[in-house]
Structures are given as structure tokens and as C-alpha cells.
């Protein structure tokens, strides 16, 4: 394991695909394992173009059931079946996700030989573990039931102090390994805790994914102190009324959320197809007036998130 954590943006547009921006989807990759956030039409092709391995996607997190976020799912599932997938896949999303998949499977008559688990989330804020992450869900403010997801990496054990181990007469081998895992051991009848030989744990990293939403308190709380916030930035400031009417955010409003949450970095996401590259540069400038660490997401861009060093 190389301890690398990164985000790969697959589609960064909104509702209508363009040659520059596909429909919404991004991959979060840790230790060669991949979580997918949303799966718009064309996502499986973007996965291949990005050089990712579809079979290594173990979890897909669906924010809501609008077409630009889910119409790529049936194609992805049927292709995985044809490619002989054997490892399990879990989908998380709003109520109705299971019905959508079942109807498409029935109408198009495709079967799945691999294990597919569909978890429909409760409206209340939830917390559960997926691989090395604690996942938190929170309802956002959109026209349909829409969830934001927080990916909170578990802390990494601190460095093992070999000299302290020698002083405590702990021989190399299973006992040291047990301490490295956070366990307590006994040497010559004396209790030794992992804290006796380990430096303080190294904090984990955090990613907040807040797709389609108006600015809301839940987005701020979900993104609190996160390393990267990916937030709906569908509109420029002069279209603020349109953003409100359609339950979306402007780039400037996304920046306000990032500032309130004390996020380290903001990625402007879900960009409307009405804007050209000059417009997008202006949107980025608007965001940076509020939150300087704002960046414009682009299809196939990668962001590596460094683990904070222990102080």
C-alpha cells in the first residue's frame, strides 16, 4: 500500500454533456480501491479513458435520481456482467434506486452473476464504514431527495518507536506487530499499551461531495475542516436567480460554503453547458474573491490529497 488518496474527475458538467464536460461522475481512489460518486451517461467510457479499472470499483454513491446522475448505471452494470465480473458491488443512494435498477433489468432482460447490493439511505444523517473510510450522509437542498457524502479516512497509527520497545524489553515479532495495530500486550507480566511505543496517530484525510444543491447548512457541516470540497457550482453570479429557482448554487455561493466550513480546497463542480471557457474563468475569479483556494474541476483532472503530518 502506497497510502495515496486521489480524486479523478470523470464528468464535470451539468445536465447536458458537451465536448469539454461529460455528465457528473468522479472516482475516489485509495490503495488501488475505487469508490464512484454518481454515474451519469457515458461514465463507463470516461472510466476507460481515464485508465481506471472498472472491476476495482467496489462502491457507487448516488447523490440523487436525476437522469444526469444515474443514466450511466445500467450500462455500467451490464458491461461488468459481460466482462465476467465476480467481485461484489454496493450501490448507495436515495429511496427509489432499487426500483430503478430492477425496472431496467426487467425491461432490458439482463442478468447479473456477481453480487449487487443496493442500500437506500434514510433521510436522517447516517454514518457507516466503507473500507478505510467512515462515510457520512446528509440531505442537501435540491428539487428531489439529494444526499451529500463525506469520506473521512481513519487515522493512521503513529510511528513505532524502536528504542522505546528495546527499553521495555519487547522483542521483535508478533508482540511488536500487535502494538502497531493498537493492541495491548503483556511482557514479563507488565501491561504495555500501544501508546507507550507509538507516536500520536496521523490524522486521516477528508473529502466532501455535495452535488446538486442550494447553499445550505448541511453542506457546511458535512464539509467542516475537509481537505477537498466538491460542490455544486452550476451557475455564474449573474444567474443567481436561476440557481435559486432550480435548486443549484453559483460558484460564489460554493466558495461561501467552503469558507464557512473551513475547507482547505474547493473544486467547482457541475458546471452548466451554457458557459464557455471565458465564462468559467470569470466564475473561478468570482469564487476566489470569497475563497482563494478555489479551483475549476475539469474532466480527467486528478487531485492527490496528502495526509497531514503529525504535529
What does this structure look like?
The chain has 311 residues and is of the alpha/beta class. It has two domains: 5-156 and 202-304, Metallo-beta-lactamase, Chain A, CATH 3.60.15; 162-196, no CATH class. It contains ten helices and 18 strands. Helix 9 runs parallel beside helix 10. It is globular.
| Alpha plus pi helix count | 10
- Coarse shape: globular
Decide which structural class fits the backbone: alpha/beta
Can you give the helix content as a percent range? Answer: 25-40%
Please compute the radius of gyration using only Cα atoms.
22 Å
How many domains, in number, for the residues?
A: 2
Assigned CATH architecture of the largest domain = 4-Layer Sandwich
Largest sheet: 7 strands, mixed
Q: Report how far apart the termini are.
A: 23 Å
How is the topology of this model organized?
Blueprint: E1 5-11, E2 13-14, E3 25-30, E4 33-37, H1 43-49, E5 57-61, H2 67-70, H3 73-82, E6 89-93, H4 97-108, E7 116-120, E8 126-130, E9 133-139, E10 147-153, H5 162-167, H6 174-180, E11 185-187, E12 190-192, E13 206-210, H7 217-222, E14 228-232, H8 240-245, H9 251-261, E15 266-269, E16 271-272, H10 277-290, E17 294-296, E18 302-304
Parallel strand pairs: 2-16, 4-5, 5-6, 6-7, 13-14, 14-15, 15-17
Antiparallel strand pairs: 1-3, 1-18, 3-4, 8-9, 9-10, 10-13, 11-12
Helix pairs in contact: 9-10
What tags apply to this protein structure?
311 residues; alpha/beta; Metallo-beta-lactamase, Chain A; 2 domains; 7-stranded mixed β-sheet; globular
Brief overview:
The protein has 311 residues and is of the alpha/beta class. It has ten helices and 18 strands.
Amino acid at each position: 500500500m502506497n497510502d495515496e488518496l486521489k480524486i479523478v474527475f470523470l464528468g464535470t458538467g451539468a445536465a447536458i454533456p458537451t465536448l469539454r464536460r461529460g455528465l457528473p461522475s468522479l472516482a475516489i481512489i485509495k490503495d488501488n480501491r475505487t469508490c464512484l460518486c454518481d454515474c451519469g451517461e457515458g461514465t463507463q467510457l470516461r472510466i476507460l479513458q481515464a485508465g481506471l479499472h472498472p472491476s476495482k470499483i467496489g462502491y457507487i454513491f448516488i447523490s440523487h435520481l436525476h437522469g444526469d446522475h444515474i443514466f450511466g448505471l445500467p450500462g455500467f452494470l451490464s458491461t461488468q456482467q459481460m466482462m465476467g465480473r465476480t467481485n461484489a458491488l454496493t450501490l448507495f443512494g436515495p429511496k427509489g434506486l432499487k426500483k430503478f435498477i430492477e425496472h431496467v433489468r426487467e425491461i432490458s432482460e439482463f442478468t447479473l452473476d456477481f453480487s449487487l447490493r443496493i442500500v437506500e439511505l434514510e433521510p436522517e444523517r447516517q454514518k457507516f464504514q466503507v473500507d478505510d473510510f467512515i462515510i457520512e450522509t446528509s440531505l442537501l437542498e435540491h428539487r428531489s431527495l439529494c444526499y451529500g457524502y463525506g469520506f473521512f479516512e481513519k487515522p493512521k497509527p503513529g510511528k513505532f518507536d524502536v528504542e522505546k520497545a528495546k527499553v521495555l524489553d519487547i522483542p521483535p515479532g508478533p508482540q511488536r506487530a500487535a502494538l502497531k495495530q493498537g493492541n495491548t500486550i503483556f511482557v514479563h507480566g507488565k501491561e504495555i499499551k500501544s501508546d507507550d511505543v507509538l507516536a500520536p496517530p496521523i490524522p486521516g484525510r477528508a473529502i466532501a461531495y455535495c452535488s446538486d444543491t442550494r447553499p445550505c447548512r448541511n453542506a457546511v457541516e458535512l464539509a467542516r475542516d475537509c481537505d477537498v470540497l466538491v460542490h455544486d457550482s452550476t451557475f455564474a453570479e449573474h444567474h443567481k436567480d436561476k440557481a435559486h429557482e432550480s435548486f443549484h448554487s453559483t460558484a460564489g455561493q460554493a466558495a461561501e460554503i467552503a469558507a464557512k466550513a473551513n475547507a482547505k480546497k474547493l473544486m467547482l463542480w457541475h458546471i452548466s453547458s451554457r458557459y464557455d471557457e471565458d465564462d468559467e474563468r470569470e466564475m473561478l475569479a468570482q469564487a476566489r474573491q470569497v475563497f482563494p483556494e478555489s479551483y475549476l474541476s475539469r474532466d480527467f483532472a486528478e487531485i492527490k490529497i496528502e495526509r497531514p503530518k503529525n504535529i
